[in-house]
Amino acid sequence: MALFDLPLEQLREYRPDVPEPADFDEFWKSTLAEAGERDLDVRLTPHETDLVTVEVHDLVFAGFGGDPIKAWLVKPKGVEGPLPCVVEYIGYSGGRSFPWAHTTYPAAGWAHLVMDTRGQGYGNWQPGDTGDPYGTTGPTNKGWMTQGLEDPEHYYYRRVFTDAHRAVDVAKSLEGIDPDRIVVAGGSQGGGIAQAVGGLRGDLAGAMIDVPFLTYFRRAVTITDAFPYQEIVEFLSGQRLREDRVFATLDYFDGVNFAARGTVPALYSVGLMDDICPPSTVFAAYNRWQGEKRITVWPWNKHEGGGIHQRGEHLRFLAEAAKGA
Amino acid sequence: MALFDLPLEQLREYRPDVPEPADFDEFWKSTLAEAGERDLDVRLTPHETDLVTVEVHDLVFAGFGGDPIKAWLVKPKGVEGPLPCVVEYIGYSGGRSFPWAHTTYPAAGWAHLVMDTRGQGYGNWQPGDTGDPYGTTGPTNKGWMTQGLEDPEHYYYRRVFTDAHRAVDVAKSLEGIDPDRIVVAGGSQGGGIAQAVGGLRGDLAGAMIDVPFLTYFRRAVTITDAFPYQEIVEFLSGQRLREDRVFATLDYFDGVNFAARGTVPALYSVGLMDDICPPSTVFAAYNRWQGEKRITVWPWNKHEGGGIHQRGEHLRFLAEAAKGA
Amino acid sequence: MALFDLPLEQLREYRPDVPEPADFDEFWKSTLAEAGERDLDVRLTPHETDLVTVEVHDLVFAGFGGDPIKAWLVKPKGVEGPLPCVVEYIGYSGGRSFPWAHTTYPAAGWAHLVMDTRGQGYGNWQPGDTGDPYGTTGPTNKGWMTQGLEDPEHYYYRRVFTDAHRAVDVAKSLEGIDPDRIVVAGGSQGGGIAQAVGGLRGDLAGAMIDVPFLTYFRRAVTITDAFPYQEIVEFLSGQRLREDRVFATLDYFDGVNFAARGTVPALYSVGLMDDICPPSTVFAAYNRWQGEKRITVWPWNKHEGGGIHQRGEHLRFLAEAAKGA
Amino acid sequence: MALFDLPLEQLREYRPDVPEPADFDEFWKSTLAEAGERDLDVRLTPHETDLVTVEVHDLVFAGFGGDPIKAWLVKPKGVEGPLPCVVEYIGYSGGRSFPWAHTTYPAAGWAHLVMDTRGQGYGNWQPGDTGDPYGTTGPTNKGWMTQGLEDPEHYYYRRVFTDAHRAVDVAKSLEGIDPDRIVVAGGSQGGGIAQAVGGLRGDLAGAMIDVPFLTYFRRAVTITDAFPYQEIVEFLSGQRLREDRVFATLDYFDGVNFAARGTVPALYSVGLMDDICPPSTVFAAYNRWQGEKRITVWPWNKHEGGGIHQRGEHLRFLAEAAKGA
Amino acid sequence: MALFDLPLEQLREYRPDVPEPADFDEFWKSTLAEAGERDLDVRLTPHETDLVTVEVHDLVFAGFGGDPIKAWLVKPKGVEGPLPCVVEYIGYSGGRSFPWAHTTYPAAGWAHLVMDTRGQGYGNWQPGDTGDPYGTTGPTNKGWMTQGLEDPEHYYYRRVFTDAHRAVDVAKSLEGIDPDRIVVAGGSQGGGIAQAVGGLRGDLAGAMIDVPFLTYFRRAVTITDAFPYQEIVEFLSGQRLREDRVFATLDYFDGVNFAARGTVPALYSVGLMDDICPPSTVFAAYNRWQGEKRITVWPWNKHEGGGIHQRGEHLRFLAEAAKGA
Amino acid sequence: MALFDLPLEQLREYRPDVPEPADFDEFWKSTLAEAGERDLDVRLTPHETDLVTVEVHDLVFAGFGGDPIKAWLVKPKGVEGPLPCVVEYIGYSGGRSFPWAHTTYPAAGWAHLVMDTRGQGYGNWQPGDTGDPYGTTGPTNKGWMTQGLEDPEHYYYRRVFTDAHRAVDVAKSLEGIDPDRIVVAGGSQGGGIAQAVGGLRGDLAGAMIDVPFLTYFRRAVTITDAFPYQEIVEFLSGQRLREDRVFATLDYFDGVNFAARGTVPALYSVGLMDDICPPSTVFAAYNRWQGEKRITVWPWNKHEGGGIHQRGEHLRFLAEAAKGA
Question: Which Gene3D superfamilies does the record associate with it (chains A, B, C, D, E, F) (predicted)?
Fold first, then answer.
């Protein structure tokens, strides 16, 4: 992928006008308030594995609408608590995978809560186990990008972001977890979700947001042909008259608007050759983040930019966050 | 596409053992009975267009679960009734499109009822307008093939086939339509739906089933990489332990099992180079059809086999059906 | 297809200098005059189909050089005449297809004359039936874009545009057709042909020009890799020294030069993500059209932009044209 | 390309029944006789180049119908004559290229006559300079495979094979060329042409037939998706009712039928992974060749099998042929 | 990927004749003996990370020819030793990655030694850090498959397998590691290496061999076009006369021949749709393995078959191995 | 390939700042001096072919480090000497091919020395026969671009350029060759090598540099995704921290820096649609060349731009060079 987006110097200063609905805060406030009326209903089931230095629980909690959301909770044994905790969200189409996929943060002394993304989870590497018991009132494209797009109230990510927000509440409620040292994390879709949660709450010890998806939709759909953003373009190519409503809905979910509210310490990453989450969309959000922040720029990477190398940055960030708390 | 499936001579005799659930008939009987308890609730709204030789109505009826299903009803003006009627189902991801896309059967003297496929309808050429207000209890792949696959009761196509079955009831109930001359029709997914309805009811004047999808799933997923069958393979590549349940569910929806019950006159088509709906899957069903039947074999065609050339065969079949009734 | 061409605001004002041969008018005047010396030699054969609300004729007329050009004439029955008539031209590699593919305009009360494009017509969906009895004096690429490119007199489209021009004469000559209400129409190559005829004659009730091909060749070959424009690039990559002659020939056939002469009411369409007929080439022509005009801009569409949605615009345009005459 | 065709042991014995028209010999006899009534009309123009050890002429002769066919004649200087001569035909879409591309056979002491393939010649590497002044009476696909396919009399390759046959007459007529030592040669389409000429004449010193195209059409179109054979499949996918006529025509041009008549020494090559000219089609012809023969089997090669390595085999074959005469 | 290889029932019985060099054992005996003359020269450097429940060392040892080979050694803290140890080899083009990528086996109570593959290691996810200070005496293709292919002594994998064999010696020599409980492991190329080491030594507690590469070369190169096997085909397409020598060399490195010598407990995995390491090549080896064995068959998976799901099988196998010792 | 680089007017003036190491001249001076201490050790073996107007020798000489480098020497017979000589370098992955591939320059009266590129040579069309007996000290990507990239001393092209430089010394040393009329030549990688040699020596009669590779690396890796430049991007995507060193090394091998030193007459070619060696990288070097120069601009060509058409330009250039000397 040749460099197809803005040059790095421009990216560093990039602050486009992204439409923000007048009632953006109200929308999320009432969404979360409504959700908050339900009990978290956390069910923790010890899950036997062949792992010995960690303790695994199958965790189910009541997400948006009280729907059961599955997660793994993996905690290091023999580390003195209360433990700091990473709450992680997953990339598009994946799920919480298996407990043995989540041993790195525990090895760093952190509890690790990995939440399923409702309805998703067919992925080879990250199968999930959580349904999304909501249908749609109108036509959709394949995939999740266009589920309920006709209306912010019914848009798929309203449910997902609410689940994600509550997953932090869950973490805070757990015995042996230090509620003051919760860090949200994720890459791609998971990064978009972490960014949303990071923007919505000020009570986190940090947010690790890698190559975030769900950010500056209006630009993304015009500068890349890559999926999943392309699901929106395909939808509009057939549902040609829904354009205004589609973008009016998306504005409530745009990562730029969440980032503009972010006050906790943030660690971002971006790949300058990333055509799935183009760098200008990432910087549009990053440059708005209000809290302490840094961004790792991977000049020669596509979407894998936020991968195993960045994991080293995570550990450093977590070490600071663990201390800082 | 080179010839990748069985040679034609073998296809003509191809009668593989396709598993049939012991309670297949019971399943569908109770499904339809339950649906039948609800009123069809047909709402016909005259729809103004610039067309003058046809009369167009926006038709909404209560499908599975009473959900509103949209359709177009296009009737020729000045043709003496009661009119015979084609009830058409749509290919994967498409919808009912626009009234002006449905003038051919009316030009042949038939009323034309084109039903949306719930939830689908982003397609460029065939946008739809009907949602599917059901979610899932487990993880899914993108697309509709894996929605509710964990269980025949909740599988997506249970709702669709029920809608389709009721669309025939709707047609029969309409003033000016001859209830004894209803023909179901469709290509690809639409062909699979027409085949299911054709197998479930003996009160039709015919079924036109082009390059049907949703037929012999167990073989299809092993001989082609093409979508949408591939959605199932992808799902199983991640949800590796669900294989038995997946196929146990699909057996309730397999076109071969519907075809084995088909008694009305049928017109099939097949493309010998069709990798989306491979010819052996089509013949596996066709060879089981019990009613009067014929199949148009297009040796040099892929999935487009059931296209504009086949439309000529349709008109001939309809002319016979119109007389025959 | 990400947005790869100029932004919409610039497209709306885009008026590039496209070279126009000094003898452009003379070339076409003499071409048509020479053709006009031959009788149209219209042969109308009633064609039996299973359609009942329309009357179908197989129509053959003498095109360029007196060569037999095939067409379908489909007329609504029971609509009081004389009838207005759409003369339609076909997209690249297709042909007149089958009569049952042409029932929409008749359903709107219009006669529909669909002309084969000589030599073309292998297409799955639109088979044709007309040869092109001319060879070439020099080497060519596969396809029609480079047939006779060495010289405007022998260029393939000189014959095609002449056929198309005469098809209007044919329509005007038919009994029961209102010669004052002829509208030319087409998409892609058909749009390019309709644009040429629309520019060459002032006696039409309108021109419906969808995503036109054959327009601003000099730019098209540098901003897209898509076929058929790419046929010219491939040709020049081997016939490297013919560049000047190639473009000198193409200037006589450039849609921009035809559009600059267009005085009848025109309806255009354009897809902003269309890489086959890039939007700047379409606007380069549209912005020059002198007659009353409007353009439907489909922001999320590629070349399918001029498809089934646009058909609704056609019907509205025709309704106006029918009245206006 | 994995091995997709028959295994080598079976290929060595492969002798399928390929339909041969009853009047095959008569067809070619009368075709050549009719052509033979015209003078060869050889025009040799010295062509100045910067080459010093060879002498180059631009050669034009009257091919089928008397049409001017261009060729290069490249002769070694300082080699005592009369010279043996290779008459070479060119691969699909290419032409005679430039004189400096033809110095190898002259370096081996042979004159080299390279004939344009009429109408073709856009290729990057092998531009041509000869038109084909014949059109068609019916629809065609892009490319040359379907030009005049409706009828053996008008099929494109009737003209090409006649040109090629006459090119040998031309070579034999040239001063300084030994008429008893003419070898025809070519790869791919050129191989198909050399095979046809080799089958039609017994007065050659040999035929070098590399990875021949135009051979066993009926099988080729079912076992590979590759072009140019695919042009026929595409054509039939739209012109579905022409199948019988198409193959009836092709039988007159099938390399297997020519090979069955071949009596001169032949050198073949084949690539076992060649999907453009699949090995079974090559062996179907080779196994029928009646003259002395050998075949170089390149097990790991696709269509490039007949390339630069095979050139070494050519030189050995020519050395024998030169002596043998 | 449709099922393109043998059906599962046949795979279970598949025991093809794979050529084995007469001096296979001698070749490896002398290779290892020669290598064994050098000291292992293990250098362990504590490597600081932000991980707290594991201890990380940068490990360098003298591999083939005494060349420095890098590895990570990751050990669980607080687990009573001596520890069992997994020695892992890496997939094609990857390297040892980062310490934080190797926390799963330590979480299961195992030490984990991850060896670089010399010369490789550009991979996004698994960068390495070890060169291969050997050149070639003949031409090569890109990649490692053809490095030194002219001769078993100089073939690249002679060096790699020797490194891998010695890595086990290294593990056994480490303080705190139980020399009787070493398991070798790897997927793809890593699986091929583990299989070679597993076949060469009887002193292991087990071998975990996922979707092994480097196995039944002679068949692999004919049934798949996928890389890296394709590197060999490409090489032979140009170096056409080296075929015999190439395969004579590869026989010394063929996984089937190593498997035939395997006596330790083995856990295999295979994906039935794996076109990179086709299932018949895997079963050809697996069916020869002499020790206790089991294979996980993933019917719906391609090369990812040996991935995260299989990791669960690993943990079970390791738990048994840990006890068994 | 649409025009993706700068427009031609800008290319003609394009003179970017390309970093030049301070010790660039010193680096090459010492490299060549060190190499020069070894004897050329030319071994000429008459090579029998079936060619009669040329004389072929298999030539081996001591290249960098004294390694044996193979070449063909093809000389015209019967041309009065001493002969001028073209020294040709080969494109990426190819080798010296076969003697019969090198008859054109001899036909023009020139001796032709074609040098293998060490280690390369798997290519279908241009097999080679020379190894590269050097390994690496660090990880690499597949291919040659990243071999030894950690350090200018060990970079692969240091060896290749030295070989190439010495090949000229070899040519000059040969009996019957005129040491004052040596022209270096090559396309793509061969063009990059010829450019380097042309920049390093003032004693040539000319340099023919077609579509040169290895030129302006820093830009090339950001404007094209094509290989081989992409090998560097891939490498950096995994070896993310080596960026500075990588480019610091490449600066010693950048064609722009060699061109800036070029004083002999040069003939360049460039394809304006060349995505493998983008036109701006070619002009960046060409515009710096200090000697007499011209460039053939092929506007409609990709990387094949420097092909058979350009060969005609070569012959003209050589004719001048032959005289000029």
Answer: alpha/beta hydrolase
